[in-house]
Amino acid sequence: MVRAFTSFIAPPLALAVFSSFAAGQPEKEFRFEVLSIRPVILPAGGRQGIADPTPNGFTTTANLSQALRFAYGPPGPMAMWMYLKTANEPSWFSDYYTFDARVSRRDLKAWQSQSKDNELLRAALRAALKERFKLALHEEPSQERIYELVVAKNGPKLKAPIADSAPPASMKLDSGAFLTWIGPRGDDGWDFHGATMQDLALQLTRVSTVPPVRDRTGLTGRYDFKVLRVQLQPDEERVYSYPVDHLGLKLRPGTENIPILVIDHAERPTAN
Fold this sequence. Notes:
This protein is α+β, with helices and mostly antiparallel strands. Helix 1 (64-72) crosses helix 4 (119-132). The two termini are 25 Å apart. The radius of gyration is 20 Å and the shape is globular. It has a four-stranded antiparallel β-sheet with strand order 9-10-11-13, with helices on one face. The chain has a three-stranded antiparallel β-sheet with strand order 2-6-4. A three-stranded mixed β-sheet has the order 5-15-7, with no helix packed on it. 16% of the residues lie in helices and 30% in strands. The protein folds into two domains: 2-142 and 258-265, no CATH class; 145-256, no CATH class.
């Protein structure tokens, strides 16, 4: 699977950084045994992204902005990392490169056993960015706007999932839930099956034009529910086009400490 910048709405928002770098903790050390990086020109309109690791390594076509955000951003679905806020990105960070890597035989068991957050792939990419692109960066604190998804005053109005209720046209989410778009590419709404509140928060994040949405409901169950799109008033932000009031939930504004990754130095790699 390729984690490209291809969600049906791609908002330019900043998301919290949970990488070991941003948390001020020692980075997990892991390196590819062999790594080839070559520049590539994509056809007009072509876009690539970060692919899942292969059993023996990693092969993908991505630009440096994507690689940086995946390597240093928070684990989880693409909506959690692809809008990580950075500063001083060189213009050539939008250029695409093919990455073709292999891990050593002694590391294969660990590589093949890494979690769905791909912590070893992230660590190996951090090492590759430093070694091949001479990347140096630091973190600066920043207070940013967010939305909080919370339970409304009268409590949640959510139904437990019906067994085997997922329709055949569903898309399986990382949590194991199923999502069916209502209308072309979800333009009219979403139909969730066995979904968590984090699933809903992530989907709302994908349509937010500015702040991300954080799950603050405290609800840990799974539910079946629909969220239908409505027309916005001229002064309303995009996230309100998918109201959640009927679920006994609401969105409220908040703030969060969201560090910015500042690029101090980077060099174009020599192709090999």
